[in-house]
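Notes continue from the previous slide.

Worked example: a multi-chain complex. Inputs as given:
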Amino acid sequence: MPRACILGTGSYLPPRVVTNDELSKRLTTSDEWIQQRSGVRERRYVEPGVGPSDLAFEATKRALDMAGLQPSDLDFLILATQTPEHEFPGTACFLQKKLGHFGVAALDVRDQCTGFLYGLSIADAYVRLGMYKRVLVVGAEVHSTGLEFADRGRHITVLFGDGAGAVIVGPADVGQASPPAPAGAGGNARATKDRGILSVHLHADGRFAEELWVPAPGSIYPGRITHKEIDEGLHYPVMNGKAVFKEAVTRMIEVSKEALGANGLTPADVTHFVPHQANLRINEMVAKDLGIPPERCDDSIRKYGNCAAASVPIALDERVRSGAVKPGDIVLMSTFAAGFTWGSAVVRW
Ligand code: UT7
């Protein structure tokens, strides 16, 4: 079965930068607390009226451009989000409307910060089966419209940001060039024989569904959401931060080892470690346990906060565009999320 590979990457961050000092004016918090506990210095927020499909559209255009493709070349659209634009239809349909490429399948993936890897696994499987040749996987989030700007939710609000990241997945045809690095960035387009998505490992444990969740609106409530739910603040994220932190460290170490073991790799083989960006301290602990040096570990949480399903593809795209990712490099991605869900993927560039 031919391997699937990443033909292009793209990302888009809304221009409005929100610093920790700005948040300190709306909440009882401080730049010092936020940086010490999470590593976040600033994040991006959309302007009113901008939705995840708008961010996904921009990220998709950039990924298509890198791959030398048009929207009409796509066979399948996969969009991962934990902040859907509307209750239904899925945000992938709104993205499709913007792309102007109708008729192909459009799928929403709802596995929170692990959603991008769940989407990547679907793309990988379809491409290897030969069913589709050009699959979009995009993670897109607008958190800023649903955060609680009050002291009760401050431990969550300070973490999240808005953004989107995308990849195009297709068959790794022999002799096909790697995604081009920008001119002068030091990359080269030499084909790598063994390149492609080497593995994706996915997990979930629904016993912990209520450790990190947004209870309302939901079809379980008569009327979906009423004044009662709103008065109780059930439309805001609720998180048992310490439990999530502990489990995230354990599971991300475990699933990263699972990925490396399945491919006969060691941490020394990992050129780029691109973990989900929920907390810098989580990633430092995971990298330290694995024995991956900090300079190989992505820390884009500092600039963008936690962009959930978009964090990994944003970080990947920035590394690719900077020319840091070279043909033959091993990229290890691993995530942990509400659900709980967690996963990992290994790509040889
Ligand atoms: O993306 C999905 C995965 N998500 C995660 O992995 C997040 C995992 N959890 C975390 O990253 C951490 O638990 C947080 C960063 C959310 C919080 O850090 P913590 O060290 O667990 O702090 P805490 O919630 O236990 O709060 C410590 C203190 C409390 O005050 P007292 O009780 O010690 O007086 C909080 O009220 O810090 C207070 N606090 C804050 N102070 C200033 C909580 N949030 C804030 C804040 N600013 N934003």
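Summary box: Residues 183-191 have pLDDT under 50 and may be disordered. The chain has one domain: 1-349.
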